[in-house]
Amino acid sequence: MNSGEYIWFNGKLVPAAEAKVSVMAQALHYGTSVFEGIRAYATPRGPAIFCLTPHVRRMFDSCKIFRMDLPQTPAQLSDAIMETVRANTFEECYIRPIVFRGAGSFSLDPRKSPIEVAVITIEWGRYLGPEAIEQGVDVMVSSWRRMAPDTGAPMGKIGGQYVTSQLITMEAADLGYAEGIALDAFGFISEGSGENVFVVKNGEVYTPPLTSAILPGVTRGVILTLCQDLGIPVREQPLLRDFLYVADEVFFTGTAAEVTPIRSVDRIRIGSGRGPITKRIQEEFFGITEGRKPDRHDWLTYVNVKKSVESMESTART
């Protein structure tokens, strides 16, 4: 992976090769980390970070759930993310802010170990493959389930909880699928290993509620808003597994997956693979993220705006 020249680490930009972590870090042994996945898109106005504010807000929510007090404010972390993208001169990239417990103690009380913060940027294309956006992907319902509501914190994007996601991903790959969909503890549809799920039936869009142990996806929220903009009815409710099999369309959403159609579930074909509602949502989503359509909800944060302002101020002084 190309992470660029710099990583923001504990308050400052450092050369990527110097951003090192001790093998005694508590997070390495117990998964005590909180992270985010964010994208910066190439636009006619330069790179723009998509939904920066809600991503940072969710990161602070995850830290609160996991009893982690960040040394930065949301504004300072947002500035660090902008600074890292700008320093690495990526036109578009995937951004990984991470908060983790460093070396201090092997105690299962993570609060005995210090908090460290990093921001990493990498060049990363379509998560499920360049052809997935148009052709769709083949998925399976996994034998692995999402956590019960009293066995974890599904609203937190916490590193240790992604062991189940890795098991889902490995199972799907070993059986020849692009991805897996997990059920919740009660047998209802939950989410993919790292994506939220939407199902289309008779012109309406359905998606599992937070009570189905899903992560409150930022892109999920964007899609709910776009459906409202487009006049597409949406229902958030528990969904049976077999609802996938009789769906007209199914698609994934997420920072990595963006809006990816699902063409089959458990070898059962889903419509044409990319139905008309999925296509309409994709057109709106990519039109906004790529700067081809108006950003009517202020989802884009342009990386070079601050630099332009500084340049103007410098010119005025001279």
TrEMBL record:
Gene Ontology BP annotations: isoleucine biosynthetic process; L-leucine biosynthetic process; L-valine biosynthetic process
Top-rank taxon: Bacteria
Single GO cellular component term: cytosol
Stored InterPro entries: Aminotrans_IV (IPR001544), Aminotrans_IV_CS (IPR018300), Aminotransferase-like (IPR036038), B_amino_transI (IPR005785), BCAT-like_C (IPR043132), BCAT-like_N (IPR043131), BCAT_family (IPR033939), Class-IV_PLP-Dep_Aminotrnsfr (IPR050571)
Cofactor(s) the protein needs: pyridoxal 5'-phosphate
Molecular-function GO terms, alphabetical: branched-chain-amino-acid transaminase activity
Keyword terms: Amino-acid biosynthesis, Aminotransferase, Branched-chain amino acid biosynthesis, Pyridoxal phosphate, Transferase
SUPFAM superfamilies documented for this protein: D-aminoacid aminotransferase-like PLP-dependent enzymes
Catalytic activity: L-leucine + 2-oxoglutarate = 4-methyl-2-oxopentanoate + L-glutamate; L-isoleucine + 2-oxoglutarate = (S)-3-methyl-2-oxopentanoate + L-glutamate; L-valine + 2-oxoglutarate = 3-methyl-2-oxobutanoate + L-glutamate
EC number(s) per entry: 2.6.1.42
Pathway(s): Amino-acid biosynthesis; L-isoleucine biosynthesis; L-isoleucine from 2-oxobutanoate: step 4/4; Amino-acid biosynthesis; L-valine biosynthesis; L-valine from pyruvate: step 4/4; Amino-acid biosynthesis; L-leucine biosynthesis; L-leucine from 3-methyl-2-oxobutanoate: step 4/4
CDD domains: BCAT_beta_family
Family in the record: Belongs to the class-IV pyridoxal-phosphate-dependent aminotransferase family.
Role description: Acts on leucine, isoleucine and valine.
Designated name of the protein: Branched-chain-amino-acid aminotransferase
Gene: ilvE
